[in-house]
Design a protein that fits this description.
233 residues, two-stranded antiparallel sheet, single chain, 2 helices, 8-stranded antiparallel barrel, mainly beta, 12% helix
Length: 233
């Protein structure tokens, strides 16, 4: 986002370490309580790894007559994303999940005299639920939803000045995938997913702009299309 519009948020509100610890603890508690004490059969574990293009949705910069903002909004829209998920089937076809999703885009801004480069990373840490159909001979499909913690990190360089911008919010992940069996326990397939969230407060180390808020939120929403592997353990 343009350095003249950098925003801020209190970094003590959502500590990434505390949120991740909370997600893992809740996941383990729910998983253990969902199984009978001396239980029937061993729970199935799925591990998914996907990667592909991700397109940000909504507004990434406030409207302005200066073409600089138009260029910025276009440059920041498309990036590359990686999604890694762990699922524990607590009852047949129903699984609890832990998810990590990362989107990144690095680029230079056109039309800025002093020169500007941007490296933006959007991350999502979530806990959720997945439904998987009864496994067929050569394929399977699943749908999922997660609630989680989203972070925004922007490493900017304007001329010789380096600026860091961070923010966080709560977001939602929705996705669906279809897999084709390669061999026992390994599947390959496409995935379509949607992340929803927005930030109106940011934190920056730019002098004089540490505590700035705007009425125009920055969209964290995104549409991802990816290809990946599923491992059934």
């Amino acid at each position: 986002m343009p350095h003249s519009l950098i925003l801020s948020i209190n970094p003590t509100i959502f500590s990434p370490v505390k949120k991740i610890f909370l997600f893992v603890s809740l996941f383990l508690c729910l998983s253990i309580s969902a199984q009978d004490s001396t239980a029937v059969k061993k729970s199935t574990v799925f591990i998914d790894v996907h990667a592909g293009p991700g397109m940000r949705l909504g507004k990434q910069a406030p409207p302005d007559n200066n073409s600089y903002y138009g260029n910025y909004s276009g440059d920041v829209r498309n990036g590359f994303q990686l999604d890694v998920s762990l699922y524990l089937e607590v009852v047949p076809r129903h699984s609890m999940s832990l998810k990590y999703n990362k989107w990144n885009k690095s680029f230079g801004i056109r039309g800025v005299n002093e020169g500007m480069t941007d490296d933006i990373t959007l991350s999502f840490y979530g806990i959720g639920y997945m439904f998987t159909n009864q496994e067929m001979a050569h394929s399977m499909w699943s749908v999922e939803g997660s609630l989680g913690y989203m972070t925004y990190k922007d490493q900017m360089k304007v001329g010789t000045n380096e600026i860091k911008v961070t923010g966080n919010t709560i977001g939602v992940f929705l996705g669906g995938a279809y897999y084709f069996k390669l061999f026992k326990g390994v599947y390959l397939g496409p995935k379509l997913s949607l992340l929803v969230g927005g930030i109106s407060k940011f934190n920056t180390d730019e002098p004089g702009m540490t505590q700035i808020e705007t009425e125009q939120p920055e969209s964290m929403s995104r549409l991802d299309i990816s290809l990946g592997l599923r491992f059934k353990l």
